[in-house]
Amino acid sequence: MIPLTHEEVLECALEQQQKMDEHKYFKSIEAEHDVGKEFAYMDWIINYAKAWRDAWLQRREERLRHAAQQSQNN
User: Fold this and answer.
1) Quick check: 54 and 42 in contact, CB under 8 A?
2) Residue 3 CA from chain centroid, whole number
3) Nearest to 15 by CA among 1, 4, 3, 31
4) pTM
5) CA terminus-to-terminus distance, the chain
6) Which of 1, 26, 36, 42 is 20 to 30 Å apart from 19, CA to CA?
7) What local confidence, expressed as pLDDT, does residue 58 receive?
8) Is 2 left (phi over 0), alpha (psi -120 to 50) or beta?
């Protein structure tokens, strides 16, 4: 695997933060009260973070492969 650039680390962190915020929103709707960041974030980390990061890294690898193919075609 090619190491992540600084920009990619920031992109991943921001997207992950957005997913955790969305999770908090939906958990709060489900509970009919604000469940709080700590609960929602821990729940997301325990239940979804690994699969989300694996998928994010897979999409990154596909983008890199596609970019390499495009540069070879030019």
Assistant:
1) no
2) 17
3) 4
4) 0.83
5) 24
6) 1
7) 95
8) beta
> Which residue is it, tokens 């970019």?
67
What is the distance between the alpha carbons of residues 40 and 29, in angstroms, rounded to a whole number?
Answer: 12
CA 20/CA 17 separation, integer angstroms: 5
Determine whether 3 is exposed, middle or buried from the number of CB atoms within 10 Å of its CB (0-12, 13-18, 19+): exposed
pLDDT class for 71, splitting at 50, 70, 90? confident
Q: Output the CA–CA distances (angstroms, integers) from residue 17 to 1, 26, 53, 54, 58, in the order listed.
A: 24, 14, 12, 16, 19
